[in-house]
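fyi for ur records
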Amino acid sequence: MTWFFIGLSAIYLLVFFMINFNHLYYFYVVARMKNVTSAAAFLKTSQPSLSTQIKTLEHNLNKSLFIKKGKYLELTTDGQKVFEISSKMFEIYDELEVFLKPEKSGKKDIRVGVSGELSRPFMTNIISAVLKKYKLAERPTLKLETGSISDLNEKLKMKKLDFIITNFASQENGLKIIRNFQMPVVMAGTGELIRKLKLSSLKKVDLVMKKASQYLVLPSDQLRLRTETNYYLFKNKIKYSTSFESDILASVIRASVDGIGFCMIPSPYIKKELQNKTLKMLRPATGLWSHWIYIIALDDKDSDQFVKKLIREFEMAL
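which gave:
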């Protein structure tokens, strides 16, 4: 009965106001993201095109739907009403889409968002290890995508993802951190570079750090790990110089392996390099500070078999 009345509301909107379905969906996304730029990126359309379609919808309804406040858009009273009805429509559409999907021999789709700030080789190894835990016939279909934390959060809230893995502890309403993992950040470099700078002869840790910090390879400024690095160096009054910077952590690690400089990186990211002695860890071995990884979902997924296996793999890797 509830679906019947929701359906009538949807038909009322679409027929009596002659609304283009795409216009209504675009409105729904903008209302969720509260920003045309972010919504345009999510919808893979241009910002001017999206703005035009929102204005067309407002014209067809003869109502103002948004009020601009700073960088964000807020719904008007009429906009809130349209959003409430359209939300029910698209939630039903998502349920119908799942229901109408063809059976895949009992397999389930798992949609995972991974922050682009995490080490891709590290995350690939974790995900691969999880999938190997399944029998071939029971292995789920994994759909993995990367993106910014804001884009992943919005896709999660719109139920386009089942959960996300990130290094940001999201404080947004409706999102829940179901597990977090602590990673020690260490300084590491090649044995040859350590010998050239005669770091082994220095007994005090602070002297080792200050000398090595003149030859750093670091993540780019826009990454959270770089923000943490800058804070550590500032707090400890360490003057530094960079030989290489990149927003791709694998490139930072490779630059360190090639002897270009010392990296300040979570130790699990360079576990293989430390084991085969391609890189050597400088003191202290316990880590300079902690970097965190979070598994975030809309609700508690601790009981989900894939998440359980994922948590175990993280615990083993860290």
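The chain has three domains: 2-100, 109-181+293-317, 183-289. thats all i got for now
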